[in-house]
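Q: Sequence in, structure out?
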Amino acid sequence: MRTGAMVTLMAVGCGVALAGPARFDHVDGGAQWVLHIDLEQASHAELGQWFLHHIDEQIAEDEIASSLRGDLRWGQDVHGVTLYGWEDEGEDDESIVAVVYGSASLDKLEERLWHGHAFLHGDDEPIKAGGHKVMVLGEDDDQVNVIAMRAGNERVFLASPKLEWLKRAAKVMDGDRDALGGGAPILELSSPPEGAMAVVVATDLSRLSGFKPASEIARQADAVFGSLSERDGKAHVSVAVSAETEEDASSIADVVRGLVALGRLIASDQPDVQPLVEMTRGLKFSAEGRMVRGSLSVDAGKVREFLEEHEHDRDDDDQGDDDDD
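A: Exactly. Output:
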């Protein structure tokens, strides 16, 4: 999938998604997966703050991303981004579309993007998708196509590596193509809990088919939903998987329990991951009709400590490799 050039724009969106309820009315009706991270929630959560700090560090190391972001503030100026995609028969690449939302302050970002477009294309008349002018940034396999538009009081950017995908996304925004609506299979599981800062919904699990025993889950599951939220110092993970039959749901639950038990057994003689093993002791899975539900609640501070400790160890290993060179 040609997504290299989207990294810069996504750094500005930083994997953040729509503040408040997911805006499925802006997602193509044929979407097979949707990723949604709530920046407003993340900026007030311990794990979210840790994540955003690392995004800031990555942006600081990239001159282009830093210049694009400027003084834009997470949650206030940049409200979020939604990612979604689908797979069309005959297409070699799986599609990806980014929808970045924000306040009027994003007019600054639009101006910077147009400067980048002009640097590459001079005074050439921009191509159009519908009635929208398209900014073309990057070249060849690193190309990304961007449209700036309005949706109510919000500034919205659509971005995609392929122009055809961008045109399809623009039609959804303009109301000329169906968006995800009530009754869509992908929405059956999408009920994120209060305080959710990350949500993913997918109906196409075929890419798991080559990874046993995950392939067994992919074969029997119709759709999967996952969310990460944080409330009162606790991080909560919720998972739901729908299956065609109750028997399939029961089988999926058995496979998941087996995977968890196997993982704990493998990790039992690895002291460095024992804190993680202990944190997953409260993991629960159950089959309810055609649905398999899982949940885990853990102290957010402990998770952050674990992440920071292992990040420090990884940095030490990298430094050791550099010294050896």
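The first helix runs from residue 6 to 13.
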